[in-house]
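SEQUENCE WITH STRUCTURE:
===
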Amino acid sequence: MAAAGCVGGFGDEGDGENVEVGMVYATGGLGDDSFNDMAQQGAVQAEEEYGISFDEAEPESVGEFDDAQRSFAESGNYDLVNCIGFAQEEALEGNAEEYPDQDFIIVDTVVEADNVRSYLFDEPAGSFLVGTLAGLLTDEEFAAGDGETNPDESAVGFVGGEESPLIESFHAGFEAGVEHTNPDAEVFSSYVGDFNDTATGQEAARTMYESGADIVFHAAGRTGIGVFQAAEDEGRFAIGVDDDQSVSQEDYADVILASMVKRVDEAVFDAIGTVVDDAFEGGEVEEIGLEDNGVEAVYGESIGDEVPEEIRDEVDETREELIDGEIDVPDEL
């Protein structure tokens, strides 16, 4: 897999003063402390290091992606348009063809066009790792921060946003990781149908906690904040996604065991760096995985250190086995 970490080879400080970038975020928008905010961090880093400037669009529905992409491309002012999220695929297929001189990237899916660079992440492998953690810990008598497990109930949960192949790949990897270390554990799951519905996320997670789950992993954008709220209310644990949510959601740091971090910021920074360096190449797919630290299990800043050492060691061993190809991880249920 190509390493997102190679971004340091692109551009020098200040080289991008004439580079303008358009950012089209996924539905759910900024302030999710997750996927969109990570993408914005990549643009901010490029602004600070290269001197580029960027403008932003926050579509509220899938139907608005076409106009958002088109508004950047039609202006002729933008060297690169970054399309964040798999749901932009259909709109970008049309706009990439209509604006062949405009360079684009898309994250989490592939658009085959000479002016589009696609970035994919190995979400199943990262989710497998946090599933391994959850599967091991659910049978342990463990308390930290504001949460505790119930070792008499071997159960964990998954809350997804919109049901799609991408979100199902998080679910599939997580469930496989749980089964790998704890085949008797039950995995509850719920897709709430929205990436921006905290109340529904809270209710979905609360139902799981009340049914015996002591750890719930979410891949649900802003909806996942509700999972943290439910964990706090029920005195259980949660696992975040995309960003280290024990930091970005510090009010819930005492229940966030870990996060499946997905370095969307590195993808955005990488793409902008290629433009600054006049080295952008469309028609390519960048695949980013564990070996690149493009996806990783990051323990919570507040309570992660309290996870027993033997469990942390087993998670580390599993990571190496995944990188070495010794474990096959499903990407669908």
